[in-house]
Design brief:
It is a single chain. By secondary structure, this protein is mainly alpha-helical. Strand 3 (69-70) and strand 4 form a beta hairpin. The two termini are 32 Å apart. It has helices at 21-37, 42-49, 53-65, 81-103, 108-118, 124-138, and strands at 2-5, 16-19, 69-70, 78-79. The chain has one domain: Arc Repressor Mutant, subunit A (Orthogonal Bundle). Helix content is 63%, strand content 9%. A two-stranded antiparallel sheet has the order 1-2. It has a two-stranded antiparallel ribbon with strand order 3-4. The chain is elongated, with a radius of gyration of 16 Å. The chain has 6 helices and 4 strands, in the order E-E-H-H-H-E-E-H-H-H.
Length: 139
């Protein structure tokens, strides 16, 4: 689970959001779709996540209410700046973990699936150590 701490607000307190694995998966998929195709379609999200389009619509409404996406029924979804920043961090975690697993000799397809699983629970300190390890190995 990823904890998102929003920038300071007028009352000088930080707003903390705990995102579920599902929310992280949605944001990551939307980020990859936007990066790859320049657009985010309901059908594409549903296909990538293996869910029904109606489920995607309901979840997008939730992410919209939390300020991570902009979505109005009948239109395409868009990541907000807040959602894009968070989705990029989630995606980078995935890429780093996958690269680490591949360096260990895990087949790429298995590493990708395992990275999806690990990325949701990895501690930031552990992730930093993985990054340091990858840098040392590549030298």
């Amino acid at each position: 689970m990823y904890i998102y701490i929003s920038p300071k607000r007028e009352n000088d307190k930080k707003e903390i959001h705990e995102l579920s694995k599902t929310a992280e998966d949605y944001l990551e998929v939307m980020y990859v779709l936007e990066k790859t195709y320049g657009r985010i379609r309901i059908k594409d999200i549903a296909d990538k996540l293996g869910v029904k389009p109606s489920s995607v619509i309901e979840y997008l409404k939730r992410l919209d209410s939390e300020g991570f996406v902009s979505y109005k029924p009948g239109s395409r979804a868009k990541l907000t700046d807040k959602g894009r920043r968070l989705a990029e961090k989630i995606y980078k975690r995935h890429v780093i973990i996958k690269e680490f697993l591949v360096l260990l000799g895990v087949p790429e397809d298995v590493a990708d699936k395992d990275a999806c699983y690990i990325e949701h629970g990895i501690h930031p300190i552990t992730l930093e150590k993985v990054i340091e390890f990858i840098k040392r190995i590549k030298k």
